TrEMBL record:
GO molecular function: secondary active sulfate transmembrane transporter activity
Record-given protein name: Solute carrier family 26 member 6-like
Record has Cell membrane as a keyword: no
Organism in which the protein naturally occurs: Salvelinus namaycush
CDD domains: STAS_SulP_like_sulfate_transporter
């Protein structure tokens, strides 16, 4: 065996044909695993040392790792500018997203303070901006309104007998529900992160997540329409709630508050115009214009001096208490009612965090630990729940702003938290006259990024229609089934598409490309030609219990050999032969008895010579029947089927065949009638090679299917070889008892080319009823 370099771009290889046994011997397969035993791994995980303790502490509290190495000269200025910009964005977004969560606005400011500080300590991403976000806020709002609807807080006015809404009691209960849901969500995430369950987000495909965010954005828009038009509508929960809400909005449109509509139009015009200018002049301005903060300041002044609330009934955010609230333990008795909502909120928030974190981590060249991110987000929600915050997530708009303004570390979060704290302690009460319509406009304008994801539809139509179907189904389910049921249905449908893809793989017949050792799909490549007598079959996906029968059906269809029919015909012919032989024996006995009566006593089972001749007269017919079976079975003419004779190499190692350049392999045999020498199948197949290079595991159904293929095709004298098996697949086949005396390990070959050469050598004897001349023009020479 050797390798000789000929010239640049070409190589010359001379080696023996490799089956699995030869490969094990050549590569010196290990008899034991190099991986430590489970007992040793458990001991190592429980063993404590100073370096290990230090690594554990630094990984659990990342700020201890990056803060001592913080470069003031390189990072401080960018972090300061970015922190101020993000803090300014937190103020209007916190107030606006609190309304989405159906809690008083000040609790949105708390959400922009406590969890942000926690993430600076425990988070691993340097660029994402966590805090209040529209999607998680609307999910919390759905839960709070379901458990604390307005109808539960209507009281009768003793003066005129009308119903009055007890806003204070309603808001207090909703804050408690939001805090309990947030705390439970944080516990879920923290526990999952501690058991290293961060990989679960991989089950959320990118098209599904983007479509879910877009559907949630539509929920946000519909929830803000009443504030934009200055009307009051009912609250709806459960499937089709958004349809009922839209109908209710249309029903109340005659009650539109004109002043609120004017405020809405002016605010939208200002926000959209300045935001587009920020994008247009992005490269010329060091930081974008904080139009959200300018808008709420201007709207508050106009509302205060024009008395919009008193004179025109424009809804305002109302009282904002000064100072921080003390921590409170959430009501654990509510957990049974919000457990499903808490889990969904946590998973959605984590999916947002890790997707944005991975994107910016790859952009700036650092790793984001998915498990630590889950722990960090869980701790943020746990601490936030104790301080009456609602669930948080990373905001795409704030994250993009942080990156564009030069933020490089988590110090940005610390600086923005300081600004939010100043606003809570001193400035919050100044914005009590801020119209809710302005906050609704801020929410809508910042949803632009979500709705830009509708551009995914034409892109997916061109690239992958299955993922487009996932995108559309997720969007529809999210809108019609609400956010919690919609997420479950979307994940289920996404999983079904994976199953259907494995159920409908592409099955191919491979052919040899002249001048190479390559075997490619004959339907795709014109130069790929089938080798006469050899069928090479490949599936585009792994074979397992859901598609094992489909694999078998496709093999029969592609090879043109219906094993079931052939075996039935063979069984029928065997039965007829046995019946005929039995009939011949009975007739012989009767004839012998008749002769005994005529000629005297003769011993039992003794025949006259003429009787024997009569029996032998049936032999040609019997032989003719056996020859007719050749339509089903290839006669081996007394020769041994070497493919199954030896457990060892399966071929004569001393005989060698060189194939190089324009050498030809010619197989000849004596001609004869097709009924005598031909094959049952129209294509004269004597070997089927199964390429299992796409298989990554072998379950019970796979082992059983492969066994049936070997045994059934052997009955009609067709050899089966396996190629491209990964080590784990061979080990699983061995453990399942697949290999035996009838199915030796030597039928597994390293490459398709090895199996082809072995088959040609095996069936190249003169007794093989196949006549063809086939040239293998290869740049590699193989010895057998």
């Amino acid at each position: 065996m050797g390798v000789e370099e000929q010239r640049a771009g070409e190589f010359y290889v001379e080696r023996d044909v490799m089956n699995e046994l030869c490969l094990d011997e050549l590569a010196r397969r290990r008899t034991h695993s190099t991986r430590p035993l489970l007992k040793e791994r458990v001991k190592d995980s429980l063993r404590c040392s100073v370096p290990k303790l230090k690594r554990s502490v630094l990984s659990f509290v990342p700020i201890l790792s990056w803060l001592p190495r913080y470069s003031v000269r390189q990072d401080a200025l960018g972090d300061l500018i970015s922190g101020i910009s993000i803090g300014i964005m937190h103020l209007p977004m916190g107030l606006a997203y609190a309304l989405l969560a159906s809690v008083p606005p000040v609790y949105g400011l708390y959400t922009s303070f406590y969890p942000v500080l926690m993430y600076c300590v425990f988070g691993t991403s340097r660029h994402i901006s966590v805090g209040a976000f529209a999607v998680t806020s609307i999910m919390i709002g759905t839960t709070t309104e379901r458990l604390a609807p307005n109808s539960n807080f209507m009281t009768l006015n003793g003066t005129n007998g009308t119903e009055v809404l007890d806003v204070v009691a309603r808001d207090a209960l909703r804050v408690q529900i939001a805090a309990s849901t947030t705390l439970l969500s944080g516990i879920f995430l923290f526990l999952l992160g501690m058991i290293r369950f961060g990989f679960m987000v991989t089950f959320l495909s990118d098209p599904m997540v983007r479509a879910y965010m877009t559907g949630a954005g539509i929920h946000v828009v519909l929830s803000q329409l009443p504030s934009l038009f200055g009307i009051r509508t009912g609250r709806f929960t459960g499937p089709l709630s958004q349809v009922y809400l839209l109908i209710d909005i249309c029903r109340h449109l005659p009650e539109t508050n004109i002043a609120a509509v004017v405020v809405t139009l002016v605010a939208l015009a200002v926000l959209i115009t300045v935001k587009e200018l920020n994008i247009y002049f992005e490269k010329k301005m060091p930081v974008p214009v904080p139009i959200e903060l300018i808008t709420i300041i201007g709207a508050t002044l106009i509302s205060y001096y024009c008395k919009l609330h008193n004179l025109y009934k424009v809804a305002v955010i109302g009282q904002i208490p000064k100072g921080l609230q003390p921590p409170r333990s959430p009501d654990v008795s509510m957990w049974g009612s919000v457990v499903g909502d808490a889990f969904v909120v946590g998973i959605v928030g984590y999916a947002l965090n890790i997707s944005l974190g991975k994107i910016f981590g790859q952009k700036h060249g650092y790793n984001v630990d998915s498990n630590q991110e889950m722990v960090a987000l869980g701790l943020c929600n746990i601490v936030g729940g104790c301080f009456q915050c609602h669930a948080i997530a990373a905001s795409p708009s704030r994250t993009l702003l942080q990156d564009s303004t030069g933020g490089k570390t988590q110090v940005v979060g610390l600086i923005s938290s300081v600004l939010v704290l100043i606003f809570i302690l001193q400035l919050g009460t100044l914005f009590e006259e801020l119209p809710k319509a302005v906050l609704a406009c801020i929410v809508l304008v910042n949803l632009k990024g979500l709705f830009m994801q509708f551009k995914d539809i034409p892109a997916l139509w061109k690239s992958n229609k299955v993922e487009l179907l996932v995108w559309l189904v997720t969007l529809v389910c999210t809108i019609l089934l609400n956010l919690d049921l919609g997420l479950g249905a979307s994940i289920g449908f996404s999983m079904l598409t994976v199953i259907f893809r494995t159920q409908l793989p592409r099955y191919s017949i491979l052919g040899h490309v002249p001048g190479t050792e390559l075997y490619l799909d004959t339907d795709t490549y014109e130069e790929a030609k089938e080798i006469p007598g050899i069928t090479i079959f490949r599936s585009s996906t792994t074979m397992y219990y859901t598609n094992a029968q489909l694999y078998l059906d496709a093999l029969q269809e592609k090879s043109g050999i219906d094993v079931g029919k052939l075996l039935m015909k063979k069984k029928k012919r065997d039965t007829e032969e046995k019946r005929k032989v039995k009939k011949e024996k009975n007739e012989a006995r009767k004839e012998a008895k008749k002769q005994n009566d005529v000629n005297g006593y003769l011993p039992n089972r003794t025949f006259h010579p003429e009787d024997k001749g009569d029996v032998e007269k049936g032999s040609p017919d019997l032989k003719l029947n056996q020859t007719a079976i050749a339509l089903v079975d290839r006669p081996i003419n007394g020769q041994v089927n070497w493919a199954f004779e030896q457990q060892g190499n399966g071929f004569d190692q001393d005989s060698k065949t060189g194939i190089h350049g324009d050498d030809h392999i010619t197989q000849t045999s004596s001609t004869g009638e097709e009924g005598e020498m031909g094959r049952t199948s129209v294509n004269n197949t004597h070997t089927i090679i199964l390429d299992l290079s796409t298989t990554n595991f072998a379950d019970t159904a796979t082992v059983k299917t492969l066994k049936n293929i070997f045994l059934n095709y052997r009955k009609i004298d067709i050899d089966i070889f396996l190629t491209g098996c990964q080590v784990c697949v061979v080990e699983q086949l061995s453990s399942a008892g697949f290999f035996s005396e009838s199915i030796p390990k030597s039928c597994v070959f390293t490459t398709i080319h090895d199996a082809v050469l072995h088959s040609l050598r095996l069936h190249g004897a003169s007794d093989v009823p196949i006549i063809y001349e086939y040239a293998l023009d290869l740049t590699c020479t193989t010895k057998m």
